[in-house]
Amino acid sequence: MIPAIGDILKIKTEEEFQRAAMEVFRFQSRECPPYRDYIRLAGIDVSAVKSVRQIPFLPIELFKTTDVYCGSTPPEKIFTSSTTGGGQPSRHMMVRLSDYEETFTKAFSLFYGDPAGVSIFALLPGYLEREGSSLIYMVDRLIARGNGGFYLRDTDKLLRDIRATRGKKILLGVTYALLDLAEHKPDLSDIVIMETGGMKGKRAELPKAELHRILCSAFGVETIHSEYGMAELTSQAYSAGKGIFRTPPWMRVLTRDLNDPFDILPAGSVGGINIIDLANLSSCAFLQTQDIGTVWPDFSFTVSGRIDRSETRGCNLLVDNILSA
Q1: What proportions of the chain, in percent to the nearest 5, are helix, strand and coil?
Q2: Number of Cβ within a 10 Å radius of residue 12
Q3: What pTM was estimated for this model as a whole?
Q4: Cβ–Cβ contacts within 10 Å for residue 82, how many?
Q5: Is the N or the C terminus of the chain less surrounded, counting Cβ atoms within 10 Å?
Q6: Which of 50-54's residues contact partners 24+ apart within 8 Å by CB, and which partners?
Q7: Residue 309, pLDDT score
Q8: What is the DSSP pairing of strand 168-173 with strand 192-195?
Q9: What is the pLDDT of residues 227-247, one digit of tens each?
């Protein structure tokens, strides 16, 4: 029997996480057709999977070409990814929007407190200008619970509103928009600056340490916070500085060998990032991403770059087989 979202969000201990992960895996290996096909083509016997580290992870690119979804109930919402540089967007089918709202509200609260007491100033051009962004949906609902607003290009109004607001404040921005704002060198030393990543083709990519140095200097803050999420996930990880991300208790990150997608690496190793997001109940909770990073012994992680498709040929052969089936 698959856990309900309420049970997932109550996970606190490692034992509870391990037990719930195995229950979700057994359910999704039956009920999610692309995941079931991937497991079959990989020659994996589901009954032989006895621990979380043995669970196979679905290549995230399948969200672009197949319906990664469990069951026959029509989804209440389909979120889509951005398509910078063209290409097919990913589609994440949500059976209930309330599950998503419960999840991101609980995750945000764990790291930043009750959103009712937080003002979020969202500088998210690009996301605002397209349909289907899960990030925009999340931020909109968090603002509705607390205070703040969205700002597209009105920098003066953004700065006036920030200065006029008291209490806990977060400026949440896409990377290139924060760099544009940084050119004005406003004093934002009393606000949390949080970047969501992504130049979206607007600026040259920068090493994360250099980016954060520029933003800290321009805004007068000591650290830059970050949010790690994607259209294919229901949950988010957050960094309070230095690019070190932490997950809520129902989410885990592991790294895999780039030459063998089924080889999970020990803590401290650099590899492809795998994510377990147990809130992905109606899609697939076990995902191979295209990011490279390191997972540390305390379950925190860092992201160091993206994987070139040519580096994962074995994994892509299985994906191609699923698409041609």
Answers
A1: 35, 25, 40
A2: 9
A3: 0.92
A4: 19
A5: N
A6: 51/18, 51/22, 52/17, 52/18, 52/21, 52/22, 52/252, 52/276, 53/254, 53/264
A7: 58
A8: parallel
A9: 999 999 999 999 999 999 999
